[in-house]
Design goal:
Layout: E1 23-28, H1 32-43, E2 49-52, H2 61-64, H3 96-109, E3 116-117, E4 122-128, E5 133-138, E6 143-151, E7 174-176, E8 190-194, H4 200-207, E9 213-217, E10 224-225, H5 234-242, H6 244-260, H7 262-267, H8 272-286, H9 290-296, E11 308-309, H10 313-317, E12 322-325, E13 329-333, E14 336-339, E15 350-353, E16 356-359, E17 373-375, H11 382-385, E18 404-406, H12 419-436, E19 443-445, H13 447-461, H14 489-495, E20 504-506
Parallel strand pairs: 1-2, 1-6, 2-3, 4-17, 6-18, 7-16, 8-9, 8-16, 9-12, 10-11
Antiparallel strand pairs: 4-5, 5-6, 13-14, 14-15, 19-20
Bound molecules: NADP nicotinamide-adenine-dinucleotide phosphate (NAP).
């Protein structure tokens, strides 16, 4: 793995605790975003920064999501940093543990360890106007000061439990996929799974062999394409290590192929009908029973919700111990889930006794207000600024919040390629902004620049496949898509290559 050079001098353990000697940057989160930022800072020669992380280790989503079957649905060669590529991924699509280990190794080899403050949760961040510093309180009782605050706490980090009556009274083990309870032995148990999204399609095939019976509660079936996965040849991996140019070329080819998909998602949604035919063919070939097939056919245009990849989801759904319940979950009772009857809401309810209930029900909308309070200029909170829905400039800077930089902020999500590319583009912009902070005390995006960009984003989003009204989680309450980027990763990277000083105020 090519990694940045390690720093020489150790960091003072009390770094940033004296407002007269603030940190250059305080990063929240040690996932791809926060680690990547730290590595880029070290590469740029910055040493006085720390990364606070609530978990006991690095990896972010790839540390937390340990549910059976967890893996990435973006090819590994693209789901890694361009500046720290790994030649020896074991599979085309890496499994969770391998990605976690990649990030652990990066943290060590990149010299990040002295900067990490693990098991430390950010509680409150406030902008001190007089000092032009961010004041960050953490749950270890410390207060730290930093010139720049980099919030990289993850777009999908707050699990969303479903709003179902009686859920708290289930009695038996009941947990979210992102908080998998490994103490619970599923063997021989009657298990309920609510949800059929990206997490569920990985969990269900992974546990179906162990459980006595699995009741799968489906609200909306997803579109699924074949997953062209497999172990990577050790010989080719050695070749990739010996000739890095080969590895880089392979990544470029993957990137270019993914980039083409943006045409269907963004520019010509009608093209999605072609891709939909592939998904329909996959469904037809995998599910011979027409009645079941009908239940599994999504009612929305291909691409409007996230397109999923799986070869084992449809086979799992046809296992004799799986029962697909495609009716509304009415309530949870002690040791059971009650759903609407077979004849719809009018029919008799169905009560299924269960030992374990698993919620594969997704996350609090990506880019929502972070789990810690953020108070900017004039005492305004980020929650108040985003009351109508999240909004930023380049997904990174927010008017009213000087020297605050978001990683995976509003409208940086993708439907067609790797988030690591978006993260790298943001890191580049933040580095450039930090260079300006060597000559200025603060940077703040102008209100008019933020508004103009967001008006343009919403105009562009209005003709994409995501405007299909399919009820996807990335649409805010007011109907705006505040999650996805309507363009290529190349366009995003171009816009973020350098800070446009006309769009910001410098103090
Ligand atoms: P998700 O895609 O939001 O799926 C949640 C599922 O729960 C949906 O099927 C939803 O149905 C259902 N649901 C929610 N509340 C419900 C309720 N009250 N009753 C019945 N069903 C309910 O969540 P996810 O599967 O955790 O995935 C979230 C995101 O994480 C993905 O879009 C992806 O970005 C990421 N992810 C990535 C990978 C990967 O391979 N890289 C793996 C897992 C997750 P509706 O569709 O009707 O709302």
């Amino acid at each position: 793995m090519t990694t940045p050079s390690a720093p020489a001098a150790p960091l003072d353990p009390q770094a940033g605790e004296d407002p007269l000697r603030p940190l250059s940057a305080l990063i929240i989160g040690a996932g791809f975003g926060g680690l990547g930022m730290g590595l880029r800072l070290i590469q740029a020669g910055v040493r006085d920064f720390i990364v606070v992380e609530a978990e006991a280790g690095v990896g972010g989503t790839w540390r937390v999501n340990t549910y059976p079957g967890a893996a990435c649905d973006v090819p590994s060669s693209l789901y890694s940093f361009s500046f720290a590529q790994k030649p020896d991924w074991s599979h085309t699509y890496a499994r969770q543990e391998e990605i976690r280990l990649y990030l652990e190794e990066l943290a060590t080899r990149g010299g990040l360890r002295p900067h990490l403050r693990l098991s430390t949760r950010a509680l409150a961040c406030a902008w001190d106007e007089e000092r032009a510093l961010w004041v960050v309180d953490t749950d270890d009782g410390r207060r730290r000061w930093a010139r720049a605050l980099i919030a990289a706490a993850g777009g999908l980090s707050q699990p969303a439990m479903p709003q179902i009556d009686g859920l708290a009274d289930f009695g038996g083990p009941c947990f979210h996929t992102a908080r998998w309870d490994h103490q619970v032995d599923l063997r021989g148990k009657r298990v309920g799974v609510i949800g059929t999204g990206a997490s569920a399609i990985q969990v269900v095939p992974a546990i179906i062999d162990q459980v006595a019976e699995l009741s799968l509660y489906q609200r909306t079936p997803p579109w699924i394409l074949r997953r062209r996965d497999g172990p990577r040849s050790p010989l080719l991996n050695r070749l990739r290590a010996a000739v890095p140019a080969l590895m880089h070329a392979e990544r470029q080819a993957r990137w270019a192929a993914a980039e083409l998909r943006v045409i269907g998602f963004v520019h010509e949604p009608r093209l999605m009908r072609v891709a939909q035919r592939f998904a329909e063919a996959h469904l037809r070939a995998s599910v011979p029973d027409p009645a079941l097939r009908e239940k599994l056919r999504p009612p929305f245009t291909f691409g409007c919700k996230r397109v999923l990849l799986s070869n084992d989801w449809y086979p799992a759904l046809q296992r004799p111990n799986l029962r697909l319940v495609d009716r509304k979950v009415l309530r949870v009772e002690r040791g059971a889930v009650v759903s609407a009857g077979a004849d719809g809401a009018e029919g008799p309810e169905e009560r299924r006794p269960l030992d374990v209930l698993i919620c594969a029900t997704g996350f609090v909308a990506a880019n929502a207000v972070p789990g810690f309070s953020v108070v900017g200029r004039g005492g305004q909170t980020l929650a108040a600024a985003w009351a109508r829905g999240p909004e930023a400039w380049h997904g990174t800077l927010v008017h009213g919040f000087p020297n605050l930089f978001l990683v995976v902020g509003p409208n940086t999500g993708l439907g067609h390629s790797s988030m690591v590319l978006m993260i790298e583009a943001q890191l580049q912009l933040i580095l450039d902004a930090l260079r300006h902070l060597q000559r200025h005390r603060w940077i703040e995006v102008k209100a008019e620049a933020q508004k103009a960009e967001n008006d343009d984003l919403q105009r562009r989003l209005s003709t994409t496949v995501w405007a299909g009204g399919c009820g996807a989680w990335y649409i805010a309450a007011d109907g705006r898509n505040t999650t996805l980027w309507p363009g290529s990763t190349a366009r995003f990277a171009r816009q973020l290559r350098a800070l446009d000083t006309a769009a910001v105020s410098l103090g």
